[in-house]
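User: We ran a pulldown and think these components assemble together. Before we commit to crystallization trials, I'd like a predicted model of the whole complex to look at. Sequences follow.
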Amino acid sequence: MSDDFSQFQDAFFEEAGDHLAVVEEGLLALEQHPEDLDLLNKIFRSAHSIKGTSGMFGFNAVAQFTHKMETLLDLLRNGQKVVTPQVADLLLKSTDCLKTLVDAAKTGSPVDDETVQRLTIELATASALGGQPPAQAASGSKQASSPLTPSLIPEPLHHYTIAWTPPDWLFQRGLDPLQIFKELANLGTLSQVAVDTTKLPELAAMDQEKCYLSWSMRLETVKDRKAVDAVFEFVREDSVLVIEECEALSVKREASESGQEREASESGTKHASRFTNDASRETSGMDGEPKPLGELLVESGAVSRETLDKALSQQKRVGEILIEQHAVTPQQVEQALQKQKQQESVAQSKKTDTASIRVDTDKIDKLINLVGELVITQSMLSDLGARFEMSQISVLLERMAQLERNTREIQERVMSIRMLPIGTAFSRFPRLVRDLSAKAGKKIQLVLAGEETELDKTVIESIGDPLTHLVRNSADHGLEPPEERLDNNKPELGTIRLNAFHEGGNICITVEDDGRGLNRDKILAKAIKQGLITENEKLSDDQIWPLIFKPGFSTAEKVTDVSGRGVGMDVVKRNIEGLGGTVKIKTALGKGTIFTLKLPLTLAIIEGMTVRVGKDTYIVPLLSILESIQPKAGAIKTVVGKGELINVRSTYLPMMRLYDVFSLQPEYTDPTKAILLILETEGERVAVMVDEILGQQQVVIKSMEQNFRKVAGVAGATILGDGTVGFILDVRGLLEIARQGAPVAA
Amino acid sequence: MSKTALVVDDSPTMRQMVALTLTNAGFDVLQAEDGKDAVNKVTGGPKMDIVVTDLNMPEMDGISLIKELRKMASFKFTPILMLTTESAAEKKQAGKEAGATGWIVKPFNPEVLLKIIAKVLPA
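Assistant: Here's a predicted model for the assembly, 869 residues in total across the polymer chains.
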């Protein structure tokens, strides 16, 4: 396939993803409304589209599997089958399977062949009418797809006589007999073409749109009967068509009048073969293009397709051959394979990172409008500048204000292009909750709110997993079993509520359940057992709840396959913090728990505190600042090998002088006159000494790597209001430096 | 003068594939995303040399589109090919009754598409 087509592959995957979502959503809704025909049609259309396009790109596994699903869906929408919970479940499982197949086509990720096989059979079984066993159905279709009478030996010249009476509405379907003759002539030599005009009515009675003619002709060709039949593909069923093979001139009537009957009945089955056959294979045969050896052997009947497939599957991998020859050890091969896998996964992750984004045309149109306005403002300004007089100062100020407005609006629009409604991240949860409630034997309803809240695409993609974990956690630990709920005078049906909303420059996502709430005593006991805290520590509730985010922490009595292994909650916190966000817990025993995730709207802009060291300005990410203090004399100690430490309320923290780290000229070298910022990241703290705190502002992060090179202790740069460059501190990096105790040369 | 083709499919990928194949083969291609869109675009508009349409589409499906087109003077004898994955005879029959010239079975590759078009398109 040419490069022109590969550009559509990405579009295909995006589209397939959309269709899969439609299918899944539709199926979930269908469980509630099994009778909804519109819904079925919608699902069918999406499945149908996936099948069509995937086949087009040669993703045959996807196409074949979707075909099976489609068959069942078709029966359902035709009312030949009824939507039972079993059927819906099967279709949902199949949708999952289809997803893995599509992923496999996209990234080459592995596919569980067994599942595919099993679901294929289940789908066939469910589709079989009147209890027809699936084996029979499968073998039936196989027969249809195998070539009828394949032959490879160069064919001798065939002689056919053809008598054709087309249907009288031939022209009304846009068909032209001339095309048919041209095509026949392409097959070989067409001769003795005679037209029969006996049915032609009087001119007055003639309908000019009807065909009253019939023809007879002779055709000499090396092509077989099938090729001749193919010419008449679109008209055969409606024509009176007699094709007879004869030997040279002496007519051997091997196809007699009764043969015509047979021909007619046979055409039905031949059609079936055409529909299931790979169309490309069929035509390449017609063109005489080279085929793989195996294909030729199958066609000549020397081997069956099964034998060929088996032989192909036995082809050995290069690693296996090398091991057999003792050229390498299995371990070496294993290592090499691991390495290959790693490289592949790196390549894959890169691939997903550069994925495209779909933007509402409306947004782009507005942006183009604004750019137009910007151009106008610019030309007005340059016009003004060309012949400026002081009297025009008010006009200048007005234009400047206009420019500022344009710029701000464009900035907002451009940012909004990266914004997607969070609904895309929420959409997976109805299914998840349905499965969880079935698995845990609990009755759970999911309530979604604020799906239209927009946030950065990168953030949306990254919060999926943490959210999934929180929802699983709520379903598994938070909500009680039905009996327990009834005992506690709660409705049997538990509720998990997902909500998203804007708050300041942040987005808040809450995961709320009306379950049993966090158990203070249990958490404390567990934390003490794990040595996270000591027995005598007095902790407030707000200090206790975050303990569940510690690695390895789980209070579940038994481990289920859903949650309870103690991995996850720490990952949730780490992921959210990685996005510059925070996780808060609010809980009431017996009433429920609310997890609140607070995330920045975008990753390109951070809230920072500007600080000054000497003449230079630095930006510290606001999220990592715990407090700022002015230390008292004597609070600072120097420890050999560890550098300076500062005593903050009887905890010793490492202290860094920022001017030392970046080799600057400070205003103060005495810590008691300067300001100390206490920064925290991933639970570690460090005190950083600066001259002065200037203020707080949003800054746009510019990459250091792209514009200069990586500098330890600096996360990026930004352009400040006065046009100078300010560096954004990398708290993690500063901690590393503090640990090594060596200043870097800036 | 190059030939004109109308390509109707609700799946953008499929539509663009077909459109690209035809463009590469020298056609001027008009795209429409469903039957309604197609009717809107050709009503009082350009005459097409060939129409390639999907069958399963929202708004107006392929069969209705073919019927509508056949009612229009400029499309009375235009070859109309339907894209189909149905092996079901009644779909094909419905298409023929509506006035479809022929059918292309999905999946197909570009060569097959052009071959079938050559089959029905007068030179």
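Residues 4-120 of chain B form a domain with the Rossmann fold fold (CATH 3.40.50.2300). That may be worth checking against your pulldown data before setting up trials.

User: Thanks, that helps.
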